Predict the 3D structure of the following.
Amino acid sequence: MSASLFSYGAVVVMIMLFLYMLLGALLEKYHCSVGHEASLLVLIGLIISFTSFQLGYDDFNNIMTFDENFFFYFVLPPIIFAAGYNMKRKEFFKNFKNILLFGLFSTILQFIVFTFFTWIVVEMDVLWRYSIETGVYEEFRLSIMEIMLMCSLLVCTDAVAAVSIVKYDEQPKLFSLIFGEGITNDAVCIILFNTVNEYMGPTSSFTATTPFKVLLGFLKLGFFSIFIGIVFGVLSAFVLKKFRFLTVNPVIEVNLIFVFGYLAYCVTELFHFSGIIALLVAGIVMAKYSWYNLSPQAKQVTSIAFQVIAYAVEAFVFGYLGISFFSYI
Protein backbone atom coordinates (compact mmCIF):
# COMPACT_ATOMS: atom_id res chain seq x y z
CA MET A 1 0.00 0.00 0.00
CA SER A 2 1.52 3.31 -1.09
CA ALA A 3 1.66 6.30 1.24
CA SER A 4 -0.32 8.47 -1.18
CA LEU A 5 -3.11 5.90 -1.44
CA PHE A 6 -3.31 5.66 2.33
CA SER A 7 -3.44 9.46 2.51
CA TYR A 8 -6.36 9.53 0.07
CA GLY A 9 -8.20 7.05 2.26
CA ALA A 10 -7.48 9.10 5.38
CA VAL A 11 -8.76 12.27 3.68
CA VAL A 12 -12.01 10.51 2.70
CA VAL A 13 -12.48 9.23 6.26
CA MET A 14 -11.90 12.70 7.76
CA ILE A 15 -14.34 14.29 5.31
CA MET A 16 -16.97 11.71 6.26
CA LEU A 17 -16.40 12.42 9.97
CA PHE A 18 -16.92 16.12 9.26
CA LEU A 19 -20.12 15.37 7.31
CA TYR A 20 -21.39 13.22 10.19
CA MET A 21 -20.96 16.09 12.63
CA LEU A 22 -22.39 18.63 10.16
CA LEU A 23 -25.46 16.54 9.36
CA GLY A 24 -26.09 15.82 13.04
CA ALA A 25 -25.88 19.50 13.92
CA LEU A 26 -28.20 20.49 11.06
CA LEU A 27 -30.79 17.85 11.91
CA GLU A 28 -30.77 18.97 15.53
CA LYS A 29 -30.94 22.66 14.63
CA TYR A 30 -33.96 22.29 12.36
CA HIS A 31 -35.59 19.59 14.55
CA CYS A 32 -35.88 17.19 11.65
CA SER A 33 -37.92 14.16 12.68
CA VAL A 34 -37.13 12.16 9.53
CA GLY A 35 -33.71 10.66 8.92
CA HIS A 36 -30.58 10.30 11.01
CA GLU A 37 -26.99 11.35 10.40
CA ALA A 38 -25.92 7.70 10.58
CA SER A 39 -28.15 6.58 7.69
CA LEU A 40 -27.21 9.66 5.65
CA LEU A 41 -23.52 8.92 6.15
CA VAL A 42 -24.02 5.32 5.01
CA LEU A 43 -25.67 6.62 1.83
CA ILE A 44 -22.78 9.04 1.23
CA GLY A 45 -20.36 6.15 1.73
CA LEU A 46 -22.30 4.09 -0.80
CA ILE A 47 -22.07 6.90 -3.36
CA ILE A 48 -18.31 7.24 -2.84
CA SER A 49 -17.85 3.47 -3.07
CA PHE A 50 -19.97 3.25 -6.23
CA THR A 51 -18.11 6.16 -7.86
CA SER A 52 -14.76 4.60 -7.06
CA PHE A 53 -15.96 1.26 -8.44
CA GLN A 54 -17.24 2.79 -11.67
CA LEU A 55 -14.03 4.77 -12.22
CA GLY A 56 -11.92 1.64 -11.73
CA TYR A 57 -10.07 2.72 -8.58
CA ASP A 58 -9.49 -0.87 -7.47
CA ASP A 59 -6.62 -0.02 -5.12
CA PHE A 60 -8.82 2.38 -3.20
CA ASN A 61 -11.59 -0.20 -2.91
CA ASN A 62 -9.10 -2.81 -1.72
CA ILE A 63 -7.88 -0.71 1.22
CA MET A 64 -11.51 -0.12 2.22
CA THR A 65 -12.29 -3.84 2.40
CA PHE A 66 -13.73 -4.89 5.76
CA ASP A 67 -11.05 -6.20 8.13
CA GLU A 68 -12.49 -8.36 10.90
CA ASN A 69 -9.56 -8.04 13.33
CA PHE A 70 -9.32 -4.27 12.84
CA PHE A 71 -13.04 -3.85 13.48
CA PHE A 72 -13.37 -6.11 16.52
CA TYR A 73 -10.16 -5.06 18.27
CA PHE A 74 -9.84 -1.34 17.45
CA VAL A 75 -13.23 -0.02 16.32
CA LEU A 76 -15.85 -1.82 18.41
CA PRO A 77 -14.28 -1.69 21.94
CA PRO A 78 -14.38 2.13 22.38
CA ILE A 79 -18.08 2.21 21.42
CA ILE A 80 -19.05 -0.61 23.79
CA PHE A 81 -16.95 0.70 26.67
CA ALA A 82 -18.38 4.23 26.37
CA ALA A 83 -21.93 2.81 26.34
CA GLY A 84 -21.27 1.03 29.64
CA TYR A 85 -19.20 3.74 31.32
CA ASN A 86 -21.54 6.64 30.45
CA MET A 87 -24.76 4.73 31.03
CA LYS A 88 -27.51 6.46 33.02
CA ARG A 89 -27.21 3.84 35.73
CA LYS A 90 -29.84 5.18 38.14
CA GLU A 91 -32.73 4.88 35.66
CA PHE A 92 -31.26 1.68 34.19
CA PHE A 93 -31.26 -0.24 37.48
CA LYS A 94 -34.52 1.40 38.54
CA ASN A 95 -36.20 -0.23 35.52
CA PHE A 96 -34.04 -3.34 35.56
CA LYS A 97 -36.96 -5.79 35.83
CA ASN A 98 -38.68 -4.38 32.77
CA ILE A 99 -35.40 -4.26 30.86
CA LEU A 100 -34.79 -7.93 31.65
CA LEU A 101 -38.35 -8.77 30.62
CA PHE A 102 -38.00 -7.12 27.20
CA GLY A 103 -34.28 -7.61 26.61
CA LEU A 104 -33.68 -11.13 27.96
CA PHE A 105 -36.87 -13.19 28.15
CA SER A 106 -38.54 -11.57 25.15
CA THR A 107 -35.42 -12.12 23.01
CA ILE A 108 -35.21 -15.79 23.98
CA LEU A 109 -38.93 -16.23 23.29
CA GLN A 110 -38.54 -14.59 19.88
CA PHE A 111 -35.59 -16.86 19.13
CA ILE A 112 -37.65 -19.97 19.90
CA VAL A 113 -40.67 -18.76 17.88
CA PHE A 114 -38.53 -17.68 14.91
CA THR A 115 -36.66 -20.97 14.89
CA PHE A 116 -39.85 -23.04 15.10
CA PHE A 117 -41.71 -21.29 12.29
CA THR A 118 -38.64 -21.05 10.05
CA TRP A 119 -38.13 -24.79 10.46
CA ILE A 120 -41.79 -25.36 9.48
CA VAL A 121 -41.36 -23.25 6.33
CA VAL A 122 -38.19 -25.11 5.37
CA GLU A 123 -39.89 -28.47 5.90
CA MET A 124 -42.75 -27.41 3.61
CA ASP A 125 -40.28 -27.42 0.67
CA VAL A 126 -41.43 -24.02 -0.61
CA LEU A 127 -37.98 -22.41 -0.72
CA TRP A 128 -35.99 -22.43 -3.96
CA ARG A 129 -32.77 -20.84 -5.13
CA TYR A 130 -31.36 -20.08 -8.55
CA SER A 131 -28.08 -21.83 -9.41
CA ILE A 132 -25.68 -19.81 -11.55
CA GLU A 133 -23.73 -22.95 -12.52
CA THR A 134 -26.69 -24.97 -13.82
CA GLY A 135 -29.08 -22.15 -14.72
CA VAL A 136 -32.03 -23.85 -13.03
CA TYR A 137 -33.87 -23.47 -9.74
CA GLU A 138 -32.89 -25.88 -6.98
CA GLU A 139 -34.52 -26.77 -3.71
CA PHE A 140 -33.19 -24.64 -0.86
CA ARG A 141 -32.63 -26.49 2.41
CA LEU A 142 -31.34 -25.41 5.80
CA SER A 143 -30.36 -27.65 8.68
CA ILE A 144 -31.89 -26.97 12.08
CA MET A 145 -28.53 -25.64 13.33
CA GLU A 146 -28.30 -23.24 10.38
CA ILE A 147 -31.85 -22.08 11.12
CA MET A 148 -30.95 -21.45 14.76
CA LEU A 149 -27.84 -19.52 13.75
CA MET A 150 -29.85 -17.36 11.34
CA CYS A 151 -32.60 -16.75 13.88
CA SER A 152 -30.07 -15.65 16.51
CA LEU A 153 -29.28 -12.78 14.12
CA LEU A 154 -32.90 -12.05 13.17
CA VAL A 155 -33.97 -11.42 16.78
CA CYS A 156 -31.27 -8.78 17.22
CA THR A 157 -32.82 -5.31 17.24
CA ASP A 158 -31.23 -1.91 16.67
CA ALA A 159 -32.26 0.71 19.21
CA VAL A 160 -30.28 3.55 17.58
CA ALA A 161 -33.24 4.92 15.62
CA ALA A 162 -35.60 4.79 18.62
CA VAL A 163 -33.06 6.30 21.04
CA SER A 164 -32.27 9.13 18.60
CA ILE A 165 -35.84 10.49 18.79
CA VAL A 166 -36.27 10.12 22.57
CA LYS A 167 -34.62 12.73 24.79
CA TYR A 168 -33.40 11.56 28.20
CA ASP A 169 -34.22 14.90 29.85
CA GLU A 170 -37.83 14.76 28.66
CA GLN A 171 -38.58 11.04 29.06
CA PRO A 172 -35.91 9.41 31.27
CA LYS A 173 -37.88 6.21 31.91
CA LEU A 174 -38.70 5.59 28.24
CA PHE A 175 -35.13 6.38 27.21
CA SER A 176 -33.70 3.98 29.82
CA LEU A 177 -36.12 1.23 28.80
CA ILE A 178 -35.27 1.54 25.09
CA PHE A 179 -31.54 1.85 25.70
CA GLY A 180 -31.48 -0.92 28.30
CA GLU A 181 -33.54 -3.26 26.13
CA GLY A 182 -31.24 -2.50 23.21
CA ILE A 183 -27.98 -3.37 24.95
CA THR A 184 -29.53 -6.38 26.74
CA ASN A 185 -30.95 -7.65 23.45
CA ASP A 186 -27.56 -7.22 21.78
CA ALA A 187 -25.83 -9.06 24.60
CA VAL A 188 -28.29 -11.98 24.50
CA CYS A 189 -28.07 -12.24 20.69
CA ILE A 190 -24.26 -12.25 20.79
CA ILE A 191 -24.27 -15.05 23.35
CA LEU A 192 -26.92 -16.97 21.39
CA PHE A 193 -24.98 -16.65 18.14
CA ASN A 194 -21.67 -17.69 19.69
CA THR A 195 -23.30 -20.61 21.49
CA VAL A 196 -25.06 -21.99 18.39
CA ASN A 197 -21.99 -21.34 16.25
CA GLU A 198 -19.95 -23.47 18.65
CA TYR A 199 -22.08 -26.51 17.77
CA MET A 200 -22.11 -25.80 14.03
CA GLY A 201 -20.14 -28.00 11.65
CA PRO A 202 -20.38 -30.38 8.73
CA THR A 203 -21.20 -33.29 11.04
CA SER A 204 -23.50 -31.37 13.41
CA SER A 205 -26.97 -32.75 13.97
CA PHE A 206 -29.97 -31.84 16.07
CA THR A 207 -30.85 -34.39 18.74
CA ALA A 208 -32.97 -34.43 21.86
CA THR A 209 -30.01 -33.18 23.90
CA THR A 210 -29.12 -30.28 21.57
CA PRO A 211 -31.46 -27.70 23.22
CA PHE A 212 -29.96 -28.53 26.62
CA LYS A 213 -26.42 -28.23 25.22
CA VAL A 214 -27.29 -24.84 23.71
CA LEU A 215 -28.86 -23.71 27.00
CA LEU A 216 -25.82 -24.87 28.98
CA GLY A 217 -23.48 -23.16 26.53
CA PHE A 218 -25.59 -19.99 26.73
CA LEU A 219 -25.41 -19.91 30.53
CA LYS A 220 -21.69 -20.75 30.54
CA LEU A 221 -20.78 -18.09 27.99
CA GLY A 222 -22.93 -15.46 29.66
CA PHE A 223 -21.70 -16.22 33.18
CA PHE A 224 -17.98 -16.21 32.44
CA SER A 225 -18.21 -13.14 30.19
CA ILE A 226 -19.99 -11.18 32.92
CA PHE A 227 -17.66 -12.59 35.58
CA ILE A 228 -14.48 -11.50 33.77
CA GLY A 229 -15.96 -8.03 33.21
CA ILE A 230 -16.74 -7.70 36.93
CA VAL A 231 -13.26 -8.94 37.90
CA PHE A 232 -11.45 -6.34 35.80
CA GLY A 233 -13.89 -3.62 36.87
CA VAL A 234 -13.31 -4.35 40.55
CA LEU A 235 -9.56 -4.73 39.96
CA SER A 236 -9.37 -1.25 38.44
CA ALA A 237 -11.20 0.20 41.46
CA PHE A 238 -8.79 -1.60 43.82
CA VAL A 239 -5.68 -0.41 41.97
CA LEU A 240 -6.86 3.22 41.85
CA LYS A 241 -7.78 3.15 45.54
CA LYS A 242 -4.64 1.49 46.90
CA PHE A 243 -2.05 3.07 44.59
CA ARG A 244 -2.90 6.74 44.94
CA PHE A 245 0.23 7.89 43.09
CA LEU A 246 -1.57 6.79 39.92
CA THR A 247 -4.31 9.39 40.49
CA VAL A 248 -2.22 12.56 40.29
CA ASN A 249 -2.33 12.87 36.50
CA PRO A 250 -5.74 12.86 34.73
CA VAL A 251 -4.15 11.64 31.49
CA ILE A 252 -2.78 8.54 33.23
CA GLU A 253 -6.09 7.93 35.00
CA VAL A 254 -8.11 8.07 31.78
CA ASN A 255 -5.73 5.65 30.09
CA LEU A 256 -5.76 3.31 33.09
CA ILE A 257 -9.55 3.12 33.01
CA PHE A 258 -9.58 2.24 29.33
CA VAL A 259 -6.66 -0.21 29.64
CA PHE A 260 -8.50 -2.24 32.29
CA GLY A 261 -11.61 -2.30 30.12
CA TYR A 262 -9.65 -3.32 27.04
CA LEU A 263 -7.88 -6.04 29.04
CA ALA A 264 -11.29 -7.42 30.02
CA TYR A 265 -12.22 -7.55 26.33
CA CYS A 266 -8.99 -9.20 25.15
CA VAL A 267 -8.78 -11.74 27.99
CA THR A 268 -12.40 -12.78 27.44
CA GLU A 269 -11.81 -13.20 23.71
CA LEU A 270 -8.67 -15.20 24.51
CA PHE A 271 -10.78 -17.72 26.42
CA HIS A 272 -13.39 -17.77 23.60
CA PHE A 273 -16.13 -16.05 25.57
CA SER A 274 -17.88 -12.79 24.64
CA GLY A 275 -15.48 -9.87 24.93
CA ILE A 276 -18.26 -7.41 24.09
CA ILE A 277 -20.31 -8.47 27.13
CA ALA A 278 -17.24 -8.39 29.39
CA LEU A 279 -16.29 -4.91 28.17
CA LEU A 280 -19.80 -3.56 28.68
CA VAL A 281 -19.98 -4.99 32.21
CA ALA A 282 -16.48 -3.71 33.01
CA GLY A 283 -17.52 -0.22 31.91
CA ILE A 284 -20.61 -0.28 34.14
CA VAL A 285 -18.63 -1.56 37.17
CA MET A 286 -15.86 1.02 36.65
CA ALA A 287 -18.37 3.86 36.45
CA LYS A 288 -19.94 2.61 39.67
CA TYR A 289 -16.77 2.01 41.72
CA SER A 290 -13.56 3.14 39.98
CA TRP A 291 -14.98 6.60 39.22
CA TYR A 292 -15.00 7.52 42.93
CA ASN A 293 -11.27 6.77 43.22
CA LEU A 294 -10.31 9.21 40.47
CA SER A 295 -9.10 12.76 40.98
CA PRO A 296 -11.69 15.57 40.52
CA GLN A 297 -10.20 16.47 37.12
CA ALA A 298 -10.23 12.85 35.92
CA LYS A 299 -13.87 12.40 36.98
CA GLN A 300 -14.85 15.08 34.49
CA VAL A 301 -12.38 14.08 31.79
CA THR A 302 -13.15 10.33 31.62
CA SER A 303 -16.80 10.62 30.61
CA ILE A 304 -16.11 13.34 28.05
CA ALA A 305 -13.03 11.58 26.63
CA PHE A 306 -14.85 8.26 26.14
CA GLN A 307 -17.87 10.05 24.64
CA VAL A 308 -15.64 11.87 22.15
CA ILE A 309 -13.81 8.70 21.11
CA ALA A 310 -17.03 6.69 20.81
CA TYR A 311 -18.70 9.44 18.78
CA ALA A 312 -15.82 9.57 16.29
CA VAL A 313 -15.59 5.79 16.03
CA GLU A 314 -19.35 5.46 15.50
CA ALA A 315 -19.14 7.96 12.65
CA PHE A 316 -16.28 5.95 11.18
CA VAL A 317 -18.31 2.73 11.40
CA PHE A 318 -21.32 4.17 9.57
CA GLY A 319 -19.11 5.63 6.86
CA TYR A 320 -17.14 2.40 6.66
CA LEU A 321 -20.33 0.38 6.12
CA GLY A 322 -21.14 2.39 3.03
CA ILE A 323 -17.68 2.93 1.62
CA SER A 324 -16.72 -0.75 1.79
CA PHE A 325 -19.87 -1.97 -0.01
CA PHE A 326 -18.52 -2.15 -3.56
CA SER A 327 -15.16 -3.54 -2.39
CA TYR A 328 -16.68 -7.02 -2.60
CA ILE A 329 -17.85 -6.80 -6.20
